[in-house]
Amino acid sequence: MPPSIRPLDDHAPRLLTVAVTSRALFDLEESHSLFEREGVQAYAEYQHRLEDEVLEPGVAYPVVRKLLALNRQLPDQVPKVEVILLSRNSADTGLRIFNSIQHHGLDIVRAVFTAGEPTWPYVAPFGTDLFLSANPESVRRSLQHGVAAATILPASRAAAAHRDQLRIAFDGDAVIFGDESERISREQGVEAFGLHEHQRAHEPLSGGPFRGFLSALHDLQAAFPAGEDAPIRTALVTARSAPAHERVIRTLREWDVRLDEALFLGGRAKGPFLAAFGADIFFDDSAHNIDSARLHVAAGHVPHGVANPD
């Protein structure tokens, strides 16, 4: 094991814990294709041969890098951000991944290598707030076990150079909030949805799969001074519009959670607005919205709620 991979105090408090798979963190698509075509032995030989060749960043890399960079700005006594690596490689073939972690200067110190077995069972024991994976089945199983998770997908065109500030955008219904209101929209139409939300404007929405992650992110934001120079900025980007906006605002107030920006788009395509916000990643339950987002930014599909039947 590389000397920089060191043990941590199991009881050390964490402001935020993110688990990421090796295929999401690094570009392993070529070797993954080889594995699917020729099997385990060919894959192992390939990784051994290229053991000292550094892997290029994958779609989750910019978010991971910015999250870990926050630790350099936090006071010593403040709990830190931790990123956990989960991989279906064996420890032997995973040496190239550890070498790449060192090369890129990523402070990732915990890892699980399952030698082909699913990684999702290890997400919850780490106390994970967010799981990013390229494997939709792992994401679905993690969501079923109460962990915020998304299948991370790259932008279809190269994004412009981003600022150091981490920018995360969320859809509302079935992501931050439950999907009860979205069910009414799909089953009874937009007018019935608007009336339902107007009548229940003072009744908080239920929490969705990303409520816990949003709260943890809010606590992390609170460790830094507010303002335009804050290292994290968040946005709600929702198809809702007036009068359905009020219930959202009151729910976030009830939860005591801050979102820096709120975009009520009334059904407009989300992609251009996410580009204007400069999102590093956007989370949505709708495949249609993900397709729009991916034209501009990296996106995380959250296979939850009425838009994603089993």
TrEMBL record:
<protein>
    <submittedName>
        <fullName>5'-nucleotidase</fullName>
    </submittedName>
</protein>
<dbReference type="GO" id="GO:0000287">
    <property type="term" value="F:magnesium ion binding"/>
</dbReference>
<dbReference type="GO" id="GO:0008253">
    <property type="term" value="F:5'-nucleotidase activity"/>
</dbReference>
<dbReference type="GO" id="GO:0009117">
    <property type="term" value="P:nucleotide metabolic process"/>
</dbReference>
<dbReference type="GO" id="GO:0005737">
    <property type="term" value="C:cytoplasm"/>
</dbReference>
<dbReference type="InterPro" id="IPR010394">
    <property type="entry name" value="5-nucleotidase"/>
</dbReference>
<dbReference type="Pfam" id="PF06189">
    <property type="entry name" value="5-nucleotidase"/>
</dbReference>
<dbReference type="GO" id="GO:0000166">
    <property type="term" value="F:nucleotide binding"/>
</dbReference>
